[in-house]
Amino acid sequence: MKLTDDQIRSIMEKHVTCKTVLVTSDESNAVIESHLKEGWELANNIECGEKRKLTFRKIEKV
């Protein structure tokens, strides 16, 4: 598959930042809501025993 110049430019102009936090199940909803308000998107939500591992991603144009 050959990418067009515009497709290559859109890939190269993005700066992706990720953040992973470990919280209790009770705190998870509040943490998710606060991060969504700050412009983060939830990329992964995994249950680890009594805790939750939340991974957030923020994509910014460079």
N- to C-terminal distance: 26 Å
Structural class: alpha+beta
Give a short account of the largest sheet: 3 strands, antiparallel
Number of DSSP-assigned strands: 3
Number of helices: 2
Write the layout of secondary structure elements.
Elements: H1 5-12, E1 14-24, H2 25-37, E2 41-48, E3 51-61
Antiparallel strand pairs: 1-3, 2-3
Question: Which features would summarize this protein structure in a list?
Answer:
62 residues, alpha+beta, 2 helices, 3 strands, 34% helix, 48% strand, elongated
Explain this structure.
The chain is an alpha+beta fold and 62 residues long. Strand 2 and strand 3 form a beta hairpin. It is elongated. It has helices at 5-12, 25-37, and strands at residues 14-24, 41-48, 51-61. Helix content is 34%, strand content 48%. The model has no long low-confidence stretch (mean pLDDT 87). The chain has a three-stranded antiparallel β-sheet.
